Amino acid sequence: MSQEIQDKIREQIREYPAILYMKGTPQFPQCGFSSRVVGILKRIGEPFAYINILEEPEIRQNLPLVSDWPTFPQLFINGELVGGCDIVEELDQEGELAPMFKDLLWPDTESDA
Description:
By secondary structure, the chain is of the alpha+beta class.
């Protein structure tokens, strides 16, 4: 089962140019770290998909095995792990985060994964 979940996670990361694995939703973040990252992403104004790991315990359990990153939230852009809250905040403060969103090619779907 865990291999199937890990494959599902890899597919999500491939499918969505920017995806945030978070606690809660962008409208109602359920932890301070997720809220801070969502605030930054909303201010940047670029689309991103999200997965509420509180509603998907299998993903919550298996994502750290895929990403080799133990904490949440986790932001991926173009299939690569950007990092968690501290790294996202640092990249934003240095002006390096917003350019990562330029020229992303989105599939013709909603941005809620």
